[in-house]
Amino acid sequence: MLMEKIRTGGAAVMKKHPLDKLMNRLSLLVLAGTAVFLAVYWHRIPARVPMHFNAAGEIDRWGTQAELLILPVISWLMYGLLTVVEQFPGAWNTGVKVTEENRERVYTLLSHMLSTLKLLIVVMFAWITLWCALARPLPVWFLPVILAALFGNMIYWLVRLFRAR
After folding, report:
1. Strand 59-64 and strand 48-53: pairing?
2. What is the DSSP string of 4-63?
3. Dihedral of the CA atoms 48, 50, 51, 52 (nearest 10)?
4. Would residue 98 be called left, alpha or beta, if left means φ above 0 and alpha means ψ between -120 and 50 degrees?
5. Most buried of the four, 28, 122, 141, 161, by CB within 10 Å?
6. What is the pLDDT of residue 104?
7. What are phi and psi of 14, to 5 degrees?
8. pLDDT under 70 in the chain at which residues?
């Protein structure tokens, strides 16, 4: 099977795993879907939209309709930054000693963590964008669920990394 290759900070070349390709494609789909939603729904978005929420999901700052565009921009920037970081695993602080024997295993697991983290981040921003466009407070469960998903994802991959070193 032919796979894309990514740089490893001047070291050996590592192949891109199908899981990472899938996560990146899903992330791009969510980013594009958010942009399409805003374009199609723009005329129905109120002039004043929620722009900040407290921990309970209650609206504590309102902004203009144009400010709503900040959320997808941040989402695209986060996706882009993590995509750039993903290309240079040799520069990552892995938390384990990287050797010739474990290099591919370590970098593959960390790449999985980054690609799933990207997907979670863009889904989070898409959800917030949608709720802001609808001028609704966030559900009270949103913050605990998103924090559990983000930290759970990192813990899962780091545990696998320490077991695989």
Report:
1. antiparallel
2. -EE--TTS--EEPPHHHHHHHHHHHHHHHHHHHHHHHHGGGS-SEEEEEE-TTS-EEEEE
3. 150
4. beta
5. 122
6. 86
7. -115, 140
8. 1-14
Give me the pLDDT at residue 156, please.
96
Go through the chain and tell me how many residues it has.
Answer: 165
Q: What is the pLDDT of residue 15?
A: 74
Q: What is the pLDDT of residue 79?
A: 97
Buried-state track 97-130, b at ≥16 Cβ within 10 A, e below 16: ebeeebbbebbbbbbbbbbbbbbbbbbbbbbbbb
> Coil, helix or strand for 49?
strand
Predicted local confidence at residue 3, as pLDDT: 36
**Diameter of the chain measured on Cα atoms:** 58
- Cα 68 to Cα 66: distance, rounded to the nearest angstrom: 5
**Euclidean distance between CA atoms 126 and 114, whole angstroms:** 18
Q: At what angle do helices 18-41 and 103-133 cross, to 10 degrees?
A: 10
Task: Give the CA radius of gyration of the chain.
Answer: 18
pLDDT tens-digit series, residues 96-106: 888 888 888 88
Q: What are phi and psi of 49, to 5 degrees?
A: -125, 155
